[in-house]
Design brief:
Layout (H helix, E strand, L loop, with lengths): L1 E5 L3 H13 L2 E6 L12 E2 L3 E2 L7 E2 L2 H9 L6 E3 L7 E5 L2 E4 L4 H6 L5 H10 L13 H9 L1 H16 L8 H4 L1 H10 L2 H9 L8 E4 L4 H10 L3 E3 L3 E7 L3 E6 L11 E4 L3 H8 L4 H8 L6 E9 L11 E3 L10 E4 H4 L8 E9 L4 H4 L3 H16 L7 E7 L8 H10 L7 E3 L2 H4 L3 H21 L1
Parallel strand pairs: 1-2, 1-13, 2-10, 7-15, 13-19
Antiparallel strand pairs: 3-4, 5-9, 6-9, 7-8, 11-12, 14-17, 14-18, 15-16, 16-17
Helix pairs in contact: 1-10, 1-18, 5-6, 8-9, 11-12, 12-16
Length: 447
Amino acid sequence: MRIAIIGGGLTGLTLAYYLQKAGVAYDLFEASDRAGGNLLSPQQAGGYQLEAGPNSLLLSSELQELLHELDLDGHIQEAAAVSQQRYVLRGGRYQVLPGSPPALLASRFFSLKTKLGLLRELLRRPAPPVPGETIAGFFERHFGAEVVDYAVNPFVAGIYAGDPRELLLSLTFPQLAALEQQHGSVLRGFAATQKGKGGRRRTITLRGGVQALTDALAARLTHYHPGQTVTGINQTAHQQYALATSGSQPAVLPYSHLALALPAYAAAELLSPLHPAAAEALAAVRYPPMTLVYSAYDRAAVTHPLAGFGALNPKVEGTYSAGAIWTSSLFPDRVPAGQVLFTSFVGGAQFARQAQEPEAAQLAAVHQELSRLYGIVGEPRWQGRYYWPRSVPQFDQHLAAARAALAPLAAHGIVAVANWQAGVSVPDCVRYARQLSGELAQGEAAR
């Protein structure tokens, strides 16, 4: 067995790392000279440490173990305690989103009608899943339209850059469908499953940025080939694969397995000659554009206390951006002393038009919106942006079809290990790559 991993993002690097630990032969090809894919932590002159991908990490057990093995324990930086507070725009003013059902019932965030609906939800009986149900459809059945508009919609826009009326529950939150099947009430089911468990997972970053994780992985790999684009795949005798690459070093050997650690559209291009139907399904997966706009101000110029993780802007509020992370509130050392930094999200499935506007227009629009919503006086100390023409894969019916089309190729030694298969979060990608490495290593041991 020799495995070709195509793509040096987080999942590709993690898969290679665990295969190497297990003694399974591999080659990892990455078109760029930089490892890490979407994990990108640029440093800006003037003392600003930015994130162009994930802004923080939820520390799962698998991720914590990997950080320890990579000697990154000393690089872990805890988010400030205020990170547990999340704000949502309602009626043009930011309000704290209640963090639990009791807190929600005691707050004024939702109407009395919605609160009564929450109480009625506790009486729901177990029910089978609704085929093809969207996130919005599920939450509207259980909690009503107001919860969808002011809690679910901004949350989904923030995590998936998506629209809850298009994303499928089965691909994003399958555990909720399982709770409905077993308990009927999602609230009762959630309470039952949380008994005896600790609180929220720790929110962390790494000193120097989350890119430190993928940099450390790449440094440990013995068969990592940066700057080599795989331009074609040919199937040889005995169901093996030969790769054509653009780099100076040719592919070493025929491969028994291909692990596609690529966006769905890039995987489609490579698979098209061998498996055109699967390639067509992969090419249909949607990736909306996203721009991250960074805005720094003197702390004295901002009247809002900024005591939280950040704020989300529901689509119904008619804002320019989908919200902002209060980077300096989470990690004060990311900005010069006496300043605050907003990382605003412009784009995604619900704000795609704004994401494609010229840079000057985006910076001006975000500054104007921040000034209005946060009571900011004066111009920013500094602004910048990072543009992703294709950001987060959308977990909708197109992605479901792509997964279904690719699944039979596993019998031919072709598997996917990318965020459209694993999940969009860093812990999801680490868990999936580690699991796949174990399956591949077990298959080799059984030979």
